[in-house]
Amino acid sequence: MASTVQPLRVCLRAYRRAPVPQLPQQSRAAAAAAAAPRIRLQTPTATTRRGFSTTQPHPAKAKKPKLDEEDADGEVKIDRPLTEEELKWIDGIKAKWDKLPPAAQNQFEKDAYELNQARRSAMAMDKDALRGAKFWSHLEEDTEFITDEQNEDPFDEDDIMAMAHHKFEEFREYREYARLAAWEMPLLSKLARPFEPPTEEEPLRFRYTSYMGEFHPAESKVVVEFCPKDLGLTEAQQLKMKKLLGPRYNPETEIAKMSCEQFEHQAQNKRYLGDVINSLIEKAKDPTDMFEDIPLYTGHHTFKVKPKFPKEWRMTEERRKYIDEVREKALLIDKEKEEQGLLVDGPARIKQYLEKPVAVPEHVLQRPVRPTSRPARRI
Prior knowledge:
Elements: H1 2-14, H2 28-33, E1 38-41, E2 69-70, E3 75-78, H3 84-99, H4 102-135, H5 162-184, E4 205-208, E5 222-226, H6 235-245, E6 249-250, E7 255-260, H7 266-284, H8 317-340, H9 346-355, H10 362-365
Parallel strand pairs: 1-3
Antiparallel strand pairs: 2-3, 4-5, 5-7, 6-7
Helix pairs in contact: 6-7
């Protein structure tokens, strides 16, 4: 009995088909009237089982729910059965749609189509704008633009452009400074003070840099110059000071030069340079080690040789007398030649040569005669 039932069960299982759900028909015009996306129902396809097999069928894996997809016509595909609420909603829309006149139905379909096209064009424009901004960055603001076009009045062809106004503003600024230089700067002469050379108590010369009120990173730089001889040191201490200064000492001018710009304010840099000079003076006065075995290195400085006028070429009274004697002798010789007629007069010779007629040879005046017949050609 068991052997007869088993083949029958296999045959029934192989030819069994899945039932097709009965869904109500959906009106395409009803969905368009409500300006909602049209819905296309897809009936599930019948799947066949493997026939004549004694193996147990494996359950299919659960598929992930797909989102509603929209095709080119604006219809939404739903790969799931509709619920009762959705079916009731569709029936209600269909009933309202049937009550409308044909003209209203056509108008609703036309409006829905136009809305769909407008939505598609807007989405395409957004994609193009994003694609262009990604490559050309044309949606970004230009921070280096000459004029600021925000909050500006519209141009009504009754005024010059903004760039021209900026140019006039530059001219006004130039003229303002020109007036200051012409009328107010001469008044500064009243505040002038006579120059007083520095005393022995002021051996340091500081130099500052100002940019007329504008911020500049080099404005805090301070430079100091001094001569080791002006510091009240002995010769041995001065030599040690020069060795300690290293490349900051100029052996040609005998002036040391140092600078500092590591602090924010000029007063701080000046104070730091003063402390450095005080420490150098203390070390130069220290008698424990005077660096006597170390020579003064001057390889960092290039001595420039300035050409001097030779002493032999200088004008002295003896040389002046010698030149006068030579000139007198030359004048006497020329005078003797002039009396004897041996002195050549250049302007007279040139005039004589120009007044003399020039003879032209006869062969130059004669015109050559061309032969009338050509000579026979040799073969």
